[in-house]
Design a protein that fits this description.
Helix content of chain A: over 70%
Number of helices of chain B: 14
Mean pLDDT of chain A: 87
Largest sheet of chain B: 2 strands, antiparallel
Structural class of chain A: mainly alpha
Strand content of chain A: under 5%
Mean pLDDT of chain B: 82
Number of strands of chain A: 2
Distance between the termini of chain A: 53 Å
CATH topology of chain B: ABC transporter involved in vitamin B12 uptake, BtuC
Number of strands of chain B: 2
Strand order of the largest sheet of chain A: 1-2
Radius of gyration of chain A: 19 Å
Strand content of chain B: under 5%
Largest interface: A-B, 54 and 55 residues
Shape of chain A: globular
Shape of chain B: globular
Distance between the termini of chain B: 56 Å
Number of helices of chain A: 11
Oligomer: heterodimer
CATH architecture of chain B: Orthogonal Bundle
Strand order of the largest sheet of chain B: 1-2
C-alpha cells in the first residue's frame, strides 16, 4: 500500500504541474494556433529566477518576482520573435520551429548564468505529513490549490471580462475579429503573458519538490504537449485532465510494470491520439486532419 | 519524351555539374589539408547533406514536415551494425539492409501519419522520434543501451570513406534535381501545390505521399549506415530530437531550392558546428539564435531571396496551351504542368495583406 500511496501522491503533483503546463500550451494555441515548445524552459526559468532573488528572504516574494518577470518575458518574446513572422504569413510550422529556437536560447543562456547542475529551490510551505507511510509535502497541496484557483480564475476572467471575450473571438477567426476592431497585437501579447504566468506558477510551486535542472526542459515541454493533445487541444479543463492521465500512466507504469517503458508508453499514447483521435479525450472537434484524398 | 522536358533536363545538367565541382573541390581541399579535424568536418557535412536531402524529399516535394529523420538515421545505423556483427557481411550488403529497413519503416509509419497534415504531421513525427530515442536507450539487447555499440572494421577519418559519402550526397542532390522534372516529380509537386486539385485531375495523392516518405526514410537510413562506417562507435546520443530539429532547420534555412537550398542549409549548419566544437553550448546557443532570426526575419531562406531585377525561372519551360508543336497533348500533362507553374510562381511566405496594420 505504501508503494501505491506514494505513486498516487507523486502522480497527483506531477499531473497537476503537467496539466497547468498543458493549460499554458492551450492558452496560446487557442488564440493563435501556435504550439509553444518553450513551455519547459519558461517554467524552469521561473524557478531559477527565484533562486537569483533569494536575498529578499521571503519565498512568497521571490515567487511573485519570478512570476512577474517570466510573464513580462512571455509578451516580450511574442512581440520580438513571433509577431513579425506571423504578420508576414509565416506558416504554423515555421512558428513552431521558432518557439523551439526560443527554448534553446533560454536554455543556453540559463546554463551560462546558473550552470547545468541541479539547484534546489526554497518551498513556500515547508514540512510534510505522513499518510500511510508516505511523506506528503504541504507544498504539493499548495500546488493543487493554486491550480484550482488558476483554472477557475482564468475561466471566470475569460467569460466575464471584455478582454477574455475578445480572446475567444480572436481564437475563432482572427480576420473577422480584427474587422470588429479588436487589437490582435495587444491581445495575443496578453495571451502570452497569461500563459507564461501560469508556467511560472508551476515552476515556483512544483519544482521545489523535485529540484531545478534546466536540462530537463525539453522533456517537460514534450510531456506537456502530450498532455495537451490527450486532454483535447484548446480545452482548458481537458488540459488538466490530460496532465493527470499522463502523470498517472507514467508513474504507475514506472512502479508496477517497468521503469524503462514510461516515456515509450506516453509517446505511444500521444502518437495514437494524434492519429486516431486528434480532438483528444474531451472530443472537441478541431480541424487537425487534412483534406481526404 | 517531349522536347521541352529534354531541354529542362539539359538545363538542369548545369546545376549537376556545379554540384560535382563543389563536392569534388571540398573533397580535394580536405584531402590536401590532411588533418583529422578537416576530414571529420567534411564527413559530418556529407552526412548532414544526405539527411537534409532526405528531408527535402518529404518537405520540399510533398510538403510533409518530419522530425523523425535522425531517428530513422539511427535505425539505419543500428541495423547496419547488427547485420555486420551477426553475419559478418561486407559494408555494401549492410547498406542494402539499412536502405530496406528505412523504406520499411517509412511505409509502416506513413500509413497512420497520412491522416495528418502540416505542423500536426510534424508533431506526430516528433512523437515517433521520441519513441525511437527511448527504444535506442532501452532495447539494450539490440542497441547496447546508453553504452552504445562498437562498430566492426570502422575506418575513422579515412579519406576514401569521406569521398564516398560526399559522392553519395552529390548523387542524391543530382537525382532530386532531375526527379523534379520527371513525370512523377511534376505530379508530386502538383500534390504539394494543391492536394484537392491534384486528386481531381487523377493523381494518386495518397500513393505519392507514401512513396515520398518511404524514399526519404530509405535515404536517411542509408546515411546512418555510412555513419557507422566512419564512427567506430554509435550510441543513442547521436540520434536525438535536437539533431532532428537541426535537420529540419537546415532545410528551412536553405530555402525553396531543392539543390542549392539543400547544400546551403547543410553547409551553413556544418560550418557553424565545426567552428564551435570546443564550446558545445555556444553551438546550441547560435543554433537557437539562428533559428529565431533566420526563420522569423528571412522567411524564404538563404537561397530564397531575389534581387529585384532577377526574373523568376522555372525548372523547365511549360508548353503553350494552343498549338505549340512540342506540347504534351494529354490534358493531364498540361494541368499538372500548370499546377507546377502555379507552385513555382506562388510566393509561399507572402500573403496579400488585406487589412491595414492599424485600426
Amino acid at each position: 500500500m505504501n508503494e501505491l500511496t506514494g505513486a498516487v501522491a507523486s502522480s497527483l503533483f506531477y499531473g497537476t504541474a503537467l496539466g497547468l503546463m498543458a493549460l499554458a500550451f492551450t492558452i496560446i494555441y487557442t488564440v493563435s494556433q501556435v504550439f509553444n515548445f518553450a513551455v519547459g524552459q519558461f517554467m524552469i526559468l521561473a524557478a531559477l529566477l527565484t533562486t537569483a532573488v533569494r536575498f529578499t528572504g521571503s519565498a512568497v516574494v521571490n515567487d511573485l518576482i519570478a512570476i512577474a518577470l517570466v510573464a513580462a518575458m512571455g509578451s516580450a518574446t511574442y512581440l520580438v520573435a513571433l509577431r513579425w513572422p506571423e504578420r508576414h504569413g509565416a506558416s504554423p510550422l515555421t512558428l513552431v520551429i521558432i518557439t523551439f529556437g526560443i527554448g534553446i536560447v533560454i536554455e543556453q543562456v540559463a546554463i551560462l548564468a546558473w550552470g547545468s547542475y541541479p539547484l534546489s529551490e526554497a518551498p513556500v510551505l515547508g514540512g510534510h505529513f505522513v499518510l500511510n507511510g508516505t511523506y506528503v509535502p504541504y507544498q504539493g497541496l499548495l500546488l493543487i490549490a493554486a491550480a484550482a484557483v488558476t483554472v477557475t480564475g482564468l475561466g471566470l476572467l475569460q467569460r466575464h471580462t471584455v478582454v477574455g471575450k475578445q480572446l475567444i473571438a480572436l481564437g475563432g477567426n482572427r480576420a473577422t475579429a480584427r474587422y470588429y476592431g479588436i487589437n490582435d497585437r495587444t491581445l495575443v501579447a496578453v495571451a502570452w503573458t497569461t500563459s507564461c504566468a501560469v508556467l511560472a506558477i508551476v515552476g515556483t510551486l512544483y519544482l521545489p519538490l523535485t529540484g531545478v535542472a534546466i536540462t530537463t526542459d525539453l522533456s517537460y515541454g514534450v510531456a506537456a504537449f502530450a498532455a495537451a493533445v490527450i486532454g483535447g487541444l484548446g480545452n482548458p479543463a481537458g488540459a488538466l485532465f490530460g496532465g493527470l492521465i499522463v502523470a498517472f500512466v507514467t508513474n504507475l507504469t514506472g512502479v508496477y510494470v517497468n521503469p524503462n517503458l514510461t516515456d515509450l508508453l506516453t509517446f505511444a499514447m500521444l502518437f495514437a491520439f494524434l492519429v486516431f483521435r486528434p480532438g483528444g479525450l474531451t472530443g472537441r472537434s478541431i480541424e487537425l486532419l487534412g483534406p481526404r484524398a | 519524351m517531349a522536347a521541352w522536358i529534354a531541354r529542362a533536363h539539359v538545363r538542369a545538367a548545369r546545376t549537376d555539374l556545379a554540384m560535382v565541382v563543389v563536392f569534388a573541390a571540398v573533397v580535394i581541399f580536405t584531402a590536401a589539408h590532411g588533418s583529422d579535424f578537416a576530414t571529420t568536418t567534411t564527413i559530418n557535412f556529407g552526412l548532414f547533406t544526405l539527411l537534409t536531402a532526405s528531408l527535402q524529399i518529404m518537405l520540399g516535394f510533398s510538403n510533409q514536415a518530419s522530425l523523425t529523420q535522425v531517428g530513422i538515421y539511427g535505425v539505419g545505423a543500428y541495423v547496419a551494425v547488427y547485420v555486420e556483427t551477426e553475419t559478418g557481411v561486407a559494408m555494401p550488403v549492410a547498406l542494402l539492409a539499412s536502405l530496406a529497413a528505412g523504406a520499411a519503416a517509412g511505409l509502416l509509419l506513413a500509413l497512420p501519419l497520412s491522416r495528418l497534415r502540416e505542423h500536426i504531421l510534424a508533431m506526430g513525427t516528433l512523437a515517433v522520434q521520441v519513441i525511437l530515442s527511448e527504444a535506442f536507450v532501452h532495447l539494450t539487447s539490440l542497441t547496447g543501451g546508453v553504452n552504445g555499440e562498437a562498430v566492426p572494421d570502422a575506418l575513422i577519418d579515412s579519406v576514401p570513406v569521406m569521398a564516398t559519402i560526399c559522392a553519395c550526397a552529390a548523387g542524391v542532390i543530382i537525382g532530386l534535381n532531375h526527379f523534379r522534372i520527371s513525370r512523377v516529380g511534376r505530379r508530386i509537386l502538383a500534390v504539394k501545390a494543391d492536394e484537392t486539385m491534384a486528386a481531381s485531375i487523377g493523381i494518386n495523392v495518397r500513393w505519392l505521399r507514401l512513396m515520398a516518405v518511404a524514399v526519404s526514410f530509405a535515404v536517411a537510413a542509408g546515411a546512418g549506415c555510412l555513419f557507422t562506417e566512419t564512427a567506430g562507435f554509435i550510441s543513442p546520443d547521436d540520434f536525438t530530437l535536437t539533431s532532428s530539429l537541426a535537420v529540419l532547420v537546415a532545410v528551412i534555412l536553405g530555402g525553396r531550392s531543392v539543390t542549392w537550398g539543400t547544400l546551403a542549409g547543410a553547409a551553413a549548419y556544418s560550418v557553424l558546428n565545426a567552428e564551435t566544437t570546443s564550446l558545445p553550448g555556444l553551438s546550441d546557443l547560435l543554433l537557437g539564435i539562428m533559428l529565431v532570426v533566420v526563420l522569423g526575419y528571412l522567411p524564404s531562406g538563404l537561397t530564397g531571396f531575389r534581387v529585384p531585377w532577377q526574373r523568376v525561372r522555372l525548372p523547365y519551360r511549360a508548353p503553350r496551351a494552343s498549338g505549340a508543336a512540342d506540347s504534351d497533348p494529354t490534358p493531364q500533362g498540361t494541368a499538372a504542368a500548370a499546377a507546377v507553374d502555379a507552385c513555382a510562381h506562388k510566393e509561399p511566405h507572402t500573403r496579400p495583406r488585406i487589412l491595414p496594420r492599424k485600426w
